[in-house]
Amino acid sequence: MPIGFEPTESSAESRAWYHEVARERMRPISRKYDDQEHDLPVEWVEWFWAEGRKGHTGSSDGPGDGFVQVCMQAEELCWGDAGLYLRMPTPALGGSAVSAAGTPEQKKRFLSHFRDEGGDPIWGAMAITEPQAGSDSAAIETTATLDGDEWVLNGTKIFCTAGEGASQQPGGFVVVWATVDKEAGRAGIKSFVVPAGTPGMELVGVENKLGIRASDTATLRFEDCRVPAANLLGSSEVKKRDPKKTGDKGFKGAMATFDASRPIVAAMAVGVGRAALDFVLETLEREGRSPRYDAPPTEQTALERDVMQMEAELQAARLLTWRAAWMMNQGKPNSLEASMAKAKAGLAVTRITQQAVAILGPTGYSTKHLVEKWMRDAKINDIYEGTQQINQLIVARKILDYPSAMLR
Q: Per the residue annotation, which of 164, 311, 313, 385 is the catalytic one?
């Protein structure tokens, strides 16, 4: 089945609607909540919970549907403000984990309430990173011990996006990665849904950050934190690794979360990069210096070549993102494509936003405009959900069919 790149009419309408939201509701408060990092953006959260979460979805036969639609929405809203996008009361990364590794019953139990009318805003978060376990998720030391019909979690998680809202807000939840059997290595890694307010889950603090400052990034501590056995996502069975085989189903089930989340992060990066590029093009147009796309390469100025390179980088990242998302829509394995999209987009948005500041000079560096903020917001896309180096390793391993032990 070929990949189509023309959105359906309803998908195009949905994209336009989210762009309007980004321009009219996010951009006007973008600087405010960048400056006031730890303040809850009340007007944005209340509006989104009342109106925005109802969403606009396309029909069932175009690239703007299903998971591709999610990526389109992410691009448009991050064109508005990436930090505010991450502050939306949604299942977010926690929901991606439930969708990737949960059973049908778990998906219904933990995700359906997001569409319910009324109630207070809720957030979902995913807790993976630990002080001693960053890119190497298999090094996780947080433990989960079965005690009767409950799992008991102990450990500390850092850099949890939306962790404050998800752990404190009634109806919220945090998906925690923990090992049920250290001797089993990767096979012992499982993920658990911990509802907000669960005794033993403590919010230790929130980070001060370079970018995406409107979002909350939390440290969570788990001390004898008990959750029902049914809150383990997927199967509790531990299959110890066969040295003749690569990987294992348990760890792969948890890692499947990234197959869903990495295209979204790539789409976020595209949105931030597009915001910076649009501003550059608008500025050049006002000054009567728009790029001459029909000029021969030998006659193009250095500025024109820079802008065209930025446009090419952005479009390549977008198409890789749509491909990874389309494959997920089709139920096809997309680990390679998700990592390719994430690696390309993270690098592209970093280059594009830095080049935008360079081209604009003092205008780009000044806080009178949002360009310097977009440059700060950009870098995180090259770090979280797997760093640039980790995603390049994943791509190389997939292409060469090498296990992790053979290529580090």
A: 385
